């Protein structure tokens, strides 16, 4: 190849790179253009504290997993443990935990043993639960001096999600801008990721088409895959159950808090349908790699979120009218 | 800043550091229990060299310093001096290169001041009035014409003599006859020819400073030109100039050491050098003079420069984090570690960090089963850091690595925080992330070390603390900068290339 066409090709590639750079968000740009203008710092606790968020959601009628008990001090712990004796299927969480630290998933009550079976098979005695709740209240898993602990009903995932990861929950992350869903993916824990849905630790990300609720791309350790790397189950072309309801739940959750740019984590219960698990005021950027497009594309598509919502409302009205 | 340069006479050139030499006269002698006297010359400060921190450590001999004409004369004397007596005289000096321009039309003056006229007379080994000198002067054409041309011819002639390793004293005539000489022969011949041409000239004795230990001293020449003593070195070909490393000890045809006979006298000159802020910088920075303030409060210069350089180090860390995308433990830690490493050197700073991180991570792991609260855990980790540093110092002493024993100089809290961050990252994000952050911290720390220990930058910031406003401005710019980090080009390379992975 003579140098001239090569140079032209290089320039073309350079231009393409610059154009692509406009669409892809880096951390600096996310913070300055998405997080800071839309999320006031004083509202961060609403995202960081799961109990505060839940209170907002319940007030706004957004479905969430039912709260069974709250410990807001050491004095409350014995009462909570007594109340739980005899019933199974719940999850114990710190209100301000991060990365899944301090979460204990409890299975059925075993009357003859006087304790519970934990997810994974080990037994949990009431004394151990007492101790764990006390630890949570003392902030051992929250990097702060004290925290609140709460107990909520264990979500039984819809079979489609249970098929992706049998030992726990896969959630659907929906990024919303002023209440409008922008882009979404399923986060699937793997044995490799130690049961955490963290994409950097070997979790699986599956892109979901916003319009149809159908999965169209999957990413594992930075590589596109078509099948689950461990179970071999197919990942593409799956139609998520209750997709319109799920988006609606995400929209309403986003509308219930004063945060404009959010990652809303939704799980689908096999009976109750979509439930909001938690929200994140600084959702990560790896979702761009999962869906194979920069956030700029998605934000531009949903650019006038109010107009889109208005159009949706108009369409709904039309359906109602006919 | 512009104001300081214009109105207060600050000079930006002053920010560059000067090379300071520490010179030791190491003299030894066997006194055989009798009276001993040793006489020598000590350097004086002048416009070419600044002498300071002079101190004397001599066993059983007392020092008297007097002035003898242009020279400082030192006399060590003692009674009942034993064998193996030692004299150590140490001083620091910042020499400066000089260069003179002699106007081409300057003529040889008919009369010179009396103080200079003494340097026209013949001396025992500078035979000014010997016929051979006059003859040589004529044959090289230095007996006529303007002063510059004469000096150039004399310099060219004496420089052109065959060099010879030092073999004691050579007088001017011998050098002329043999057409070869070492430094003192060439210089004496230069002086003899210059004086014969009517130009006052004198020998200069001193040292050519270079790190190490040596016995060789050096001689060169000064000629009196229009009220200035201008240096020449025919041995090394310096005309009307001297490089920085020449140290003047005495002027005139003198002998460097006189001593009592039969004392087995020996001497060496030991020289070390380091970069220091130039003295002119200190003198010229007068407005908002933090330097002077620290001097008055008797606070060390190293503390001042560490404090002032911290924002610069933090800016560098910001660049690494937000532009390169290199993860570090916090924004201040690399700069703090670099400041701490200023005392131990970069390599041992890295070693200290690695050793402490390893031991604290181990301690933290061992304690994790106890599930203690945060503050008591930190307090225990601090104890672990102390144990580690003491153990490292002990081990270093056993192994004979003196530099490593200095890890105890490292601020313990900084190390403890670094180790704590490492452990938190390890438990929250896994070994990969923690390792990356540790490596990033060490890389940025080394970057900060280089930048923060740059003497020129330090003096710039000390002379112009306003530079820190530029640092703030740079941070404001970076704080509004939405560009992608270098690491993100790799992370999103599929998206950027238009074909997602």
Low-confidence region ranges of chain B: none
Please give the alpha-carbon distance between the first and last residues of chain A: 64 Å
- CATH architecture verdict of the largest domain in chain A: 2-Layer Sandwich
Number of H- or I-type helical stretches of chain B:
18
Q: What coarse outline of chain B follows from CA principal-axis ratios?
A: elongated
Mean pLDDT across all amino acids of chain A: 87
Largest sheet of chain A: 7 strands, antiparallel
Which pair of protein chains has the largest interface, and what are the residue counts?
A-B, 33 and 26 residues
What's the helix count of chain A?
11
Main CATH class of the largest domain in chain A: Alpha Beta
The total domain count of chain A is 2
**What is CATH's topology name of the largest domain in chain A?**
D-amino Acid Aminotransferase, Chain A, domain 1
Specify the overall morphology of chain A. globular
H/E element string of chain A? HHHHEHEEEEHEHEEEEEHEEHHH
Strand content of chain B: 15-25%
> Approximately how much helix is present in the residues of chain A?
25-40%
Q: Could you say which structural class the secondary elements and strand pairing of chain B correspond to?
A: alpha+beta
Oligomeric description of these chains: heterodimer
The poorly predicted ranges of chain A are 303-314, 316-322
Q: How would you characterize the overall build of this protein?
A:
The complex is a heterodimer of chains A (about 325) and B (about 500). Chain A has about 325 residues and is α+β, with helices and mostly antiparallel strands. Chain A has helices at about 5-25, 25-40, 45-50, 50-60, 75-85, 125-135, 160-165, 245-255, 285-290, 295-300, 305-320; strands at about 65-70, 90-95, 105-110, 115-120, 125, 150-155, 170-175, 180-190, 205-210, 215-220, 225, 260-270, 275-280. Helices cover about 35% and strands about 25% of the residues of chain A. In chain A, the strands form 2 sheets. A 7-stranded antiparallel β-sheet of chain A has the order 11-10-9-8-7-12-13. In chain A, helix 5 packs antiparallel against helix 6 (about 125-135). With about 500 residues, chain B is of the alpha+beta class. Chain B is about 45% helix and about 25% strand. Chain B has helices at about 1-5, 115, 130-140, 145-160, 170-180, 185-195, 280-285, 290-295, 300-325, 335-345, 345-370, 375-400, 410-430, 430-450, 455-465, 465-480, 485-490, 495, and strands at about 20-30, 35-40, 50-60, 60-70, 70-80, 85-95, 100, 160-165, 180, 200-210, 210-215, 220-225, 230-235, 240, 240, 245-250, 260, 265-275. The longest helix of chain B is centred in the C-terminal third of the chain and has 26 residues, at about 375-400. The chains are: A alpha+beta (about 325), B alpha+beta (about 500). The interface of A and B includes residues 16, 23 and 222 of A.
């Amino acid at each position: 190849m003579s140098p001239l066409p090569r140079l032209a090709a290089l320039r073309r590639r350079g231009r393409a790179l610059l154009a692509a750079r406009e669409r892809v968000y880096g951390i600096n740009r996310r913070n300055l253009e998405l997080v800071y203008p839309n999320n006031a710092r004083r509202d961060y606790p609403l995202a960081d504290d799961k109990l505060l968020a839940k209170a907002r959601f319940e007030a706004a009628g957004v479905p969430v997993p039912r709260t069974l008990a709250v410990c807001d001090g050491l004095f409350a712990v014995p009462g909570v443990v007594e109340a739980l004796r005899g019933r199974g299927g719940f999850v114990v969480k710190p209100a301000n935990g991060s990365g899944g630290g301090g979460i204990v998933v409890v299975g059925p009550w075993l009357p003859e043993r006087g304790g519970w079976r934990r997810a994974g098979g080990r037994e949990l005695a009431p004394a151990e639960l007492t101790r764990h709740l006390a630890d949570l209240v003392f902030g051992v898993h929250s990097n702060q001096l004290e925290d609140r602990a709460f107990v909520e009903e264990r979500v039984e995932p819809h079979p489609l999600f249970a098929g992706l990861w049998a030992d726990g929950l896969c959630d659907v992350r929906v990024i919303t801008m002023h209440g409008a869903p922008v882009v979404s993916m399923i986060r699937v824990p793997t044995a490799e990721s130690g049961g955490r849905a963290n994409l950097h630790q070997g979790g699986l990300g599956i892109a979901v088409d916003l319009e149809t609720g159908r999965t169209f791309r999957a990413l594992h350790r930075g590589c596109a895959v078509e099948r689950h790397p461990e179970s071999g189950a197919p990942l593409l072309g799956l139609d998520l159950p209750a997709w319109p309801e799920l988006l609606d739940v995400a929209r309403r959750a986003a509308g219930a808090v004063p945060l404009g740019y959010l990652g809303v984590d939704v799980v689908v219960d096999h009976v109750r349908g979509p439930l909001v698990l938690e929200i994140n005021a600084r959702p990560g950027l790896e979702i761009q790699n999962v869906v194979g497009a920069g956030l700029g594309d998605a934000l531009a598509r949903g650019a006038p979120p109010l107009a889109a919502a208005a159009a949706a409302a108009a369409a709904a009205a039309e359906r109602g009218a006919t | 800043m512009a104001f300081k340069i214009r109105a207060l006479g600050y000079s930006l050139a002053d920010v560059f550091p000067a090379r300071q030499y520490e010179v030791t006269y190491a003299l030894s002698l066997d006194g055989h229990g009798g009276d001993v006297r040793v006489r020598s010359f000590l350097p004086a400060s002048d416009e070419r060299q600044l002498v300071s921190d002079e101190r004397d450590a001599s066993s059983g001999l007392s020092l008297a310093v007097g002035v003898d004409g242009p020279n400082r004369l030192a006399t060590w004397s003692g009674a009942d001096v034993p064998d193996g007596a030692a004299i150590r005289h140490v001083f620091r000096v910042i020499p400066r290169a000089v260069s003179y321009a002699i106007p081409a039309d300057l003529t040889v003056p008919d009369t010179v001041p009396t103080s200079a006229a003494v340097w026209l007379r013949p001396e025992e080994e500078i035979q000014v009035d010997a016929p051979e000198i006059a003859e040589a002067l004529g044959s090289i054409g230095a007996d006529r014409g303007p002063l510059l041309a004469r000096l150039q011819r004399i310099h060219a002639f004496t420089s052109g003599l065959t060099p010879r390793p030092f073999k004691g004293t050579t007088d001017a005539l011998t050098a002329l006859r043999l057409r070869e000489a070492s430094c003192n022969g060439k210089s004496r011949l230069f002086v003899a020819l210059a004086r014969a041409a009517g130009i006052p000239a004198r020998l200069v004795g001193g040292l050519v400073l270079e790190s190490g230990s040596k016995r060789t001293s050096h001689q060169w020449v000064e000629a009196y030109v229009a009220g200035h003593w201008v240096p020449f070195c025919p041995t090394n070909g310096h005309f009307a100039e001297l490089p920085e490393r020449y140290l003047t000890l005495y002027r005139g045809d003198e002998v460097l050491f006189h001593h009592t006979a039969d004392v087995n006298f020996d001497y060496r000159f030991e020289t070390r050098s380091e970069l220091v802020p130039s003295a002119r910088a200190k003198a010229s920075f007068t407005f908002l003079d933090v330097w002077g303030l620290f001097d008055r409060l008797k606070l060390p210069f190293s503390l001042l420069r560490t404090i002032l350089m911290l924002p610069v180090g933090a800016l560098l860390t910001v660049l690494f984090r937000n532009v390169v995308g290199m993860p570090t433990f916090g924004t201040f830690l690399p700069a703090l570690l670099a400041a701490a490493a200023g005392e131990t050197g970069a390599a041992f700073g890295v070693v200290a960090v690695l050793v402490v991180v390893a031991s604290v991570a181990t301690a933290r792991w061992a304690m994790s089963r106890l599930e203690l609260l945060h503050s008591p855990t930190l307090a225990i980790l601090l104890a672990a850091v102390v144990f580690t540093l003491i153990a490292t110092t002990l081990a270093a002493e056993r192994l004979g690595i003196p530099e490593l024993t200095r890890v105890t100089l490292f601020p313990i809290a900084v190390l403890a925080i670094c180790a704590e961050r490492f452990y938190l990252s390890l438990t929250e994000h896994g070994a990969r992330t923690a390792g990356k952050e540790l490596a990033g911290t060490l890389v940025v720390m080394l970057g900060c070390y280089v930048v923060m220990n740059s003497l020129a930058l330090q003096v710039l910031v000390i002379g112009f603390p306003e530079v820190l406003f530029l640092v703030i401005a740079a941070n404001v710019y970076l704080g509004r900068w939405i560009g992608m980090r270098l690491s993100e080009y790799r992370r999103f390379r599929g998206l950027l290339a238009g074909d997602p992975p």
